[in-house]
Amino acid sequence: MIHLRPTDYTRQPWKNGRGTTTELWRLERDGQLLVRLSRAAVVEDGPFSLFPGIERNLTVLSGPGFRLTGVGLDLRCKPLVPVAFPGDLQVMASETGGQQSDDFNVMTVRHLPLPEVTLAQHDLLPAGGRLALYALGPCRVNGADVARDDLILTDGTARLGGDWPVIAVRLHGLD
Predict the structure, then answer these.
(1) CATH number of 9-109
(2) Strand ranges (DSSP E) for 63-156?
(3) Are 40 and 20 in contact (CB under 8 A)?
(4) CA-CA distance, 150 to 106, in Å (whole number)?
């Protein structure tokens, strides 16, 4: 089990230069991105960055949320409801109302199976693939205290406890 904390994360500008992201964890193989978990804030209407060959999954953590639209895509991004979309599709955020919405992002290279992204609390999550658990508040994972915004990575089972849920991301095909 790997326990990452906000001091382990890195901030970087968005590809489109319109904001910043906090990268929580990244996995590359032979210089190619396989998985990236990050946090960002959507503060205004505008375009999302393009990521060719990448599948994206976004979960609004705080704020009112917003709408994502593109060719053949119209998603309402509501708090704590994961939404998935292709990273190479030009999408626009709208209906922000000038209010900030913080979100949690999962990016996976297209040849991997799509990640399973859920909200979990007081669960026993079985082993299988790599499990990434992002704490939305103080909780426990396998008996260890985890603070808000910490990230736990494990290839084993995860027993969750405490008063706050986690965003659970199950990743397959990383072997």
Answers:
(1) 2.60.120.10
(2) 66-70, 73-77, 83-86, 92-94, 101-109, 116-120, 124-125, 130-135, 139-141, 144-146, 151-154
(3) yes
(4) 15
Give the containing element (helix H, strand E) for 101: strand 101-109
Q: Tell me how far the alpha carbon of residue 95 is from its chain's centroid.
A: 21
How distant, in Å, are the alpha carbons of 34, 58, 78, 106 from that of 64? 30, 14, 7, 20
Q: Which two tokens stand for residue 84?
A: 């998935």
User: For the whole model, what pTM was predicted?
Assistant: 0.93
pLDDT in tens, 23-82: 999 999 999 999 999 999 988 899 998 999 999 999 999 999 999 999 999 999 999 999
Whether the predicted pLDDT of 18 surpasses 90 = no
